[in-house]
Amino acid sequence: QVQLVESGGGLVQAGGSLKLSCAASGGTFSRYAVGWFRQAPGKEREFVAAIARTGGITNNADSVKGRFTISRDNAKNTVYLQMNSLKPEDTAVYYCAASYTRPLLAFTRWNDYDYWGQGTQVTVSS
């Protein structure tokens, strides 16, 4: 069983950047696909980005393509979400999630993930 801890959230002005980290412990991290999701107040949880076990396959939501980049360092048991050109509509709690799965899979649905972190707040001011 893997435990996930997100960090790197904060307050940033529109057009700025943040880099989120998702640190894992308690499992063989390289056997897990990882995804980032976000949830704004009053809205449903939304897929942001996902990465396969070895990092060769990624998926990104249309709303963040060209602005956000997901990556991972299995030696450090960490997945990153680099967020550039942030917009006020990116404001949300960001969660990372992990799924013990086969290689080359990067799930976009929240119910494909088994383990979740506590989330980190990202606030983008206009």
Describe what this molecule looks like in 3D.
The protein has strands at residues 3-7, 10-13, 18-25, 32-39, 46-51, 58-60, 68-73, 78-83, 92-100, 115-116, 120-125. It is built from no helices and 11 strands. The termini are far apart. By secondary structure, the protein is mostly beta strands. Strands 2, 4, 5, 6, 9, 10 and 11 form a 7-stranded mixed beta sheet that branches. The chain has a 4-stranded antiparallel beta sheet with strand order 1-3-8-7, with no helix packed on it.
Mean pLDDT: 96
The portion of residues forming beta strands comes to over 45%
- Note the main sheet: 7 strands, mixed
Number of strands: 11
Task: State the share of residues found in helices, binned by percent.
Answer: under 10%
The stretches of 5 or more residues where confidence is low (pLDDT under 50) are none
Radius of gyration: 13 Å
Helix and strand string, N-terminal first?
Answer: EEEEEEEEEEE
Shape: globular
Report the end-to-end length measured between terminal Cα atoms.
40 Å
Annotation field: number of helices = 0
Reconstruct the topology from this structure:
Blueprint (H helix, E strand, L loop, with lengths): L2 E5 L2 E4 L4 E8 L6 E8 L6 E6 L6 E3 L7 E6 L4 E6 L8 E9 L14 E2 L3 E6 L1
Parallel strand pairs: 2-11
Antiparallel strand pairs: 1-3, 3-8, 4-5, 4-9, 5-6, 7-8, 9-10, 9-11
